[in-house]
Amino acid sequence: SSPGTDNRWRHVRRLLERAGPLGGPEFEPDPELFSAIRSDLVQILVVGAGGLGCEMLKDLALSGFVNLHLIDMDTIDLSNLNRQFLFRPKDIGRPKAVVAAEFVERRVSGCRVTPHFGKLEDKPLEFYKQFMCIVCGLDSVQASVIPLIDGGTQGFQGHCRVVRAHATPCLECTADLYSSTQQGFPLCTLAHTPRLPEHCIEFARIMQWPQEWPFGEEVPVDGDDPHHVDWIRTEACKRARQFGIREPDFRLTQGVVKHIIPAVASTNAVISAQCVTEVFKAITGCYPLLNNFANFSDIEGVAVNVVPLERNPQCDVCGQPPPKPLTFNSRDSLQTVINQLKSEHGMTRPSLTACVEGRDVTLYMDLSFLRDQLADNLDKSLAELGLLSNTVLNVTDSAQSGMKPVTFVLNLEDGMET
Amino acid sequence: MTSSAVEAPTDITAQEAELYDRQIRLWGLDAQKRLRASRILMVGATPLTGEIAKNLVLAGIRSLTLMDDSPLSADDIDSSFIYDPSLATAATTRAEAALSALHSLNPMVEVSAKSGQPEQLTADVLANEDYDAVLAISQPVEVLQSLGRLCRSVTYDGEVNSNGAGNNSNSDSSAKQRRQVQFFAADCFGCHGYVFLDLQRHEFATELAEVPPKAGQDSSVDPKTAAVPAAGSQPVETHLIKRSADYADFESVLRTRWDPAKLGSLRRLSPALYLAFLLFEFQRANNGARAGPNDVDALKTLWRAFAESQQLPANLLDEAVLSSGLQPPSCPVLAIVGGVAAQEVIKAVSHKDDPFNNFFVFDGIQSCGSVQTLG
């Protein structure tokens, strides 16, 4: 139990219990709000337990949240310790999520942190549905209906953005904002007209290594093996001398081979804190969210600015209006659904797929060679087909070529929900 | 306190090279060496101090000395990671309670507590204890004034060698320079915060991108204004150039007159900036006491008088913004201001890259920061 009193949360309570200048137009202060954000209903997922993740976990715990999950697939390395401050030298080799969770639970009484040591992609969709908000330092999570707060840093620069399906651009809409961390040099530059030490390094890694196999046939480059890096550096230096380019040192060589991104604690502190502020606002509703992309840089002086990015109407991922509801009874047949699509939604020969238990299932295809195979489905009830309320249906019309799929969401009146 | 008689070694160890690898790639080895020779004094051991100190200790300075004799309370422990929870019932000071957490973040950094009040610091103390920078955190305005003056009164006559350590010897090398004590002030008020720098005459190195041999082949680079491109974009050859900048002292900044003829631009400034100055006024009128939620009326009266004396419209700062600056700061605000402050200290003591000049304000309502050159 805490050595302090309830006084420790007074700064948080003030934001939630009183009307004031920070409240948005729809915010209703309520003394119950503080205990509500600490109830089981409010679960928050932090993606990544590295430079941003450690800072975010600290900020969330000290902002009063108690049900935190943390997912990360990495173990701790010495070079992490210049900024990932929940880790100590004795933790090297242990999973980041596990160590971070232990630290915060020990230090902030009442806060529960559940670690997940593994990859995002290995978790089923259901895993993500338990969370009221997701905050991450990676850009590999697709937009979902729940608010997603995304932060990223490289060296002295960083961003914090709010993503909400149908309201803001999804991560795919603005993918070109993120400069590639893979230094994709054109091969002709590497082969014929190198100008930079990096070109010489990549030439040695990509072209010379697989020709000479210096450490054995088919033995790949291991950026963590200093002998490998040294070999690449030696070859890169020879090439650099040939072309009158500055010869790379070991650090630069290893950085290029391993695609190392420079990183420092202060930038992570700023970006994480901005993200957690948005999480707090998203959960409590106490103030409108950031609209919607904040940039930070302290290369020269300090610059912070916020831009309202617009959705890309051509976006493959989100360039669609919100799904329209279709209301049926679970005993209705698939044919009933198709009839309604024809009569009320202007479709002639609709084909339907749905996401059932995490897998895409084709329900019916109105194409000559598939009609018969799936004809049995037409008489089955929606319940028999495993369709529940909130199932999303993707519908195309074979009679309109080039048409993008239209999404509908099922609303079953007697219904069990997904 | 140890004197500078023991020089920092000029080369970093292999372990340090690995630990600091990610940041050396950002600011270079020379800057890291200067950082690791820097001695810093922080007056005030508040949660904001904790955020700044965390970033400085992780970055690998030589030593950090905390000065704060106020007794540790149970609330302090719950509000920040920096205080040792096992000292909850011990009769100890905030400075003492922060030492073990800071030490464990980076055992290579010397952390210590220094007893006493800021008024007791003298030029001799600063010089003998060899501080490169003094940070005044959450201090009343009068303390800021006296510390700011104090830092300017200290100059080290001696050679500054390549790792930044002064050694007070009168070597006749042509590299003899006067070393100054850099002064920083920072505080958070409600959902806002400020960071102020006085680096006197500051010399630093910055990287300029080289013009590529064939114009148009790379992304356009203006040789006059080019900064290093964002990490992750195509790399460009750079070379170091030396620059210098002059900073105003805190007194001049405090006496800033807002020019009513420039009302258009004054309106675009964050109201949090005016609030920061209003809170200085309040401290002056109330013996250094911090304004709290119960002081709204007194502050409104003070603001009206302040605005009138400077011929400014009273609506530059409304009651809503005013009250947003009066409660204890939340964790994220401390982290943001602490991150910005720490990075400017790092730039300043390592003499690498451009520190801002001179007053940064974070506006927690707009979630935005801005820098003004005042004084």
TrEMBL record, chain A:
Q: Which reaction does it catalyse?
A: ATP + [NEDD8 protein] + [E1 NEDD8-activating enzyme]-L-cysteine = AMP + diphosphate + [E1 NEDD8-activating enzyme]-S-[NEDD8 protein]-yl-L-cysteine
Which GO terms are recorded in the biological process aspect for this UniProt protein?
protein neddylation
What enzyme category does the UniProt record give?
Answer: ligase
Name the residues annotated as catalytic in the UniProt entry.
Answer: 188 (glycyl thioester intermediate)
Which Gene Ontology molecular-function terms are recorded? ATP binding; NEDD8 activating enzyme activity
- The E2 binding domain covers 326-413
Cellular component terms, GO, for this chain's entry? cytoplasm; nucleus
Instruction: Please name the SUPFAM superfamilies in this protein's record.
Output: Activating enzymes of the ubiquitin-like proteins
**Which pathway does it take part in?**
Protein modification; protein neddylation
Is this entry keyworded Methyltransferase? no
Keywords from the UniProt entry: ATP-binding, Ligase, Nucleotide-binding, Ubl conjugation pathway
EC number(s) on file: 6.2.1.64
Task: Decide whether keyword Repeat is in the record.
Answer: no
Query: What is the similarity comment for this entry?
Result: Belongs to the ubiquitin-activating E1 family. UBA3 subfamily.
Q: What is this protein called?
A: NEDD8-activating enzyme E1 catalytic subunit
From TrEMBL, chain B:
For this UniProt entry, what's an example GO CC term?
A: cytoplasm
Please give the Pfam families that the UniProt record associates with this protein: ThiF
Q: Which top-level group of life is the source organism from?
A: Eukaryota
Check the record and name the Gene3D superfamilies matching this protein: NAD(P)-binding Rossmann-like Domain (3.40.50.720)
Gene Ontology biological-process annotations: protein sumoylation
Name the protein family.
Answer: Belongs to the ubiquitin-activating E1 family.
Protein name, please? ThiF domain-containing protein
Task: Look up and give the organism this protein is from.
Answer: Macrostomum lignano
